[in-house]
Amino acid sequence: MSQIDAHYDHAIIGSGISGLLCAAYLAKKGKKVIVLEKNHQIGGCLQVFSRDKKIFDTGVHYVGSLGKGQPLRHLFDFIGIGDLLKYQRLDMDGFDRIYFEDEQVEYKFGQGWDNFISGLSKYFPEESENLLLLLEEINRIVSLFGPYHLKELEENSVTIEILSLSAYEVISSFITSERLIAVLWGNSILYAGNKAKTPFYVFALILNSYVEGSYRLIHGGSQISKYLSMIIHDNGGLVRKYAEVTSIEIKEGKVDKVIVDQNISVNVSTCIAAIHPACVIGLLPEYSLRPSYVSRVKELQNTPAFISVYFSLKENALPYFNYNTYILKNNDAAMHPDGHFDDNWPTNMMISTGCEEHDQQYANTINVLAYCDVKIFKKWESTFNTTARHQERGQDYDQLKEELINKIAKKVASKISGFEDMYFAAYCSTPLTYRDFLNVPDGTGYGVEKDYNNALFTFISPKMKIPNLLMTGQNTDLHGVYGASISALLTLKHTSEGKLIFEEINEFLNN
Ligand SMILES: Cc1cc2nc3c(=O)[nH]c(=O)nc-3n(C[C@H](O)[C@H](O)[C@H](O)COP(=O)(O)OP(=O)(O)OC[C@H]3O[C@@H](n4cnc5c(N)ncnc54)[C@H](O)[C@@H]3O)c2cc1C
Questions:
Q1: Ligand 1 pocket check: which of 275, 326, 427 to mutate, most ligand atoms within 8 Å of Cβ?
Q2: In whole angstroms, what is the distance from residue 284 CA to residue 436 CA?
Q3: Cβ contacts of residue 280 below 8 Å, gap of 6+?
Q4: Which fold has domain 7-50+59-87+219-300+460-510?
Q5: Looking at domain 96-212+302-443, which of 2.60.40, 3.90.1570, 3.90.660, 3.30.1360 is its CATH number?
Q6: For the chain, how far is it from start to end, CA to CA, in angstroms?
């Protein structure tokens, strides 16, 4: 393992996509960069694991805006990994399929807005004009968020009024059918959509990115972290695993050192924390931030936690679906992230299949994502288990996992008949798994929850009172591979090397 030096220009805490993108850019600028990652594997939510000779993604099912000419692909080209990634486009006429248990009809989302609107208009012909009007509003809002088109954010474009628009209210001001409203929220598990909180801009940016282009990463999301890490190393930087930052030392109001594993001291000129803001506060001495800031961050609500269930499929048992299926109990389930464990659970879940690159006829894995109330794991609250720090949680924990897996398998079987006989093994990541592997409070899926009722309160700036400490990642802007990547750009804007990052990207694209 490479030695950690005594001084770095930039120390990045956390090797999720945002941390790695910041590090790759700064390393390419000739800066001495280190990424410190506590886990045995880099990538954060991009991590994969392997069982039964199959690869399972822990936090990425598909990615939006990754097609040639689309913003995320442009950003990856700029940083140098675009051509290296292997991915394939999901079904053009139905990349997401929304299935309601109370109706047993599957509504398809097409890629490209024309396709999307004409697809839904087949089910709801009387709403086709309304869908076009809603699209106009989506386009208007999306166009205001310059960074999502790799452009500088124009002053006064994103106002508090824009951030305070409610997704539910805007959608229902255009659409009359309750079922169509629920269909439009159908894939809302992607952003923990909540009728009472989700801002319209979150709905618009995320739906737009997937309608623009939806892609499955072949062999999993970890290829993104692998290639970013390669760029960092090729430019003289270091990505260090098994390196937990346990504190940040402040001298004369600035970050002086980061302490790794309580004993390795690293002098840094700048520190970028690509982790949850509550965890950043936990690393700092008590006096270093204003008490009002600290209590504000502590009061922030986080998005709900998930359970992921991974099924190993028998050979040639199930055709591969080049799309995702969302199973919703009813309209309400589409708009309420409910992880409460009762007879109805889960009321909202997403199914995606995986396959071998050389055999796309049959699926070899199924991954199911569902909301899961962390409270059912209260008994194991004080345990901690990761690959780097292994601890068994005991038989009763395994039994509860088994129960949850069986419930999910039953739900999948209600959609895919005979499913029980199609798999031979199943594994799961609980909210505690996500909590421990990612260092996120209560295993939150997407970090700080955006709330249109109090838009500014839930907005976390990358800049802090400490001038050489910045934050990045899903909490400072939007979550998702796309959102966390854009957050990296917005953070880099605050470094002396990255002030002109948007100009540089556009110059690169024009050439
Ligand atoms: C179950 C699930 C499914 C998802 N599905 C999708 C999807 O299909 N498509 C999509 O686009 N997005 C999806 N997302 C969201 C997306 O993966 C994340 O929003 C994004 O990857 C977050 O990136 P990040 O850089 O903010 O941080 P993270 O990926 O959370 O990485 C943070 C890293 O920091 C490390 N760390 C924390 N504390 C310390 C410390 N003290 N010292 C050292 N290291 C530390 C952690 O170990 C971790 O590696 C999903 C997320 C989840 C949880």
A1: 275
A2: 20
A3: 13, 248, 273, 464, 469, 471
A4: FAD/NAD(P)-binding domain (3.50.50)
A5: 3.90.660
A6: 39
Helix (H, G, I), strand (E, B) or coil at 29: coil
If the chain, 511 residues long, is cut into consecutive pieces of 10 residues, what is the mean pLDDT of each piece?
86 98 98 97 96 94 95 98 96 98 94 98 98 98 97 92 98 98 98 98 98 94 97 98 97 96 95 97 94 93 97 96 97 94 94 89 96 96 92 94 97 95 97 96 96 92 96 96 98 98 97 90
**Which H/E stretch holds residue 87?**
strand 87-89
> Mind giving me the DSSP string for 314-350?
PTTSSBPPSSEEEEESSHHHHH------STT--SEEE
- Look at ligand 1, atom 38, and give the residue with the nearest C-alpha: 439
Domain spans in the chain, listed from the N-terminal domain onward:
7-50+59-87+219-300+460-510, 96-212+302-443
Ligand 1, atom 5, lies closest to the CA of 60
Closest CA to 335 of 480, 184, 474, 443: 184
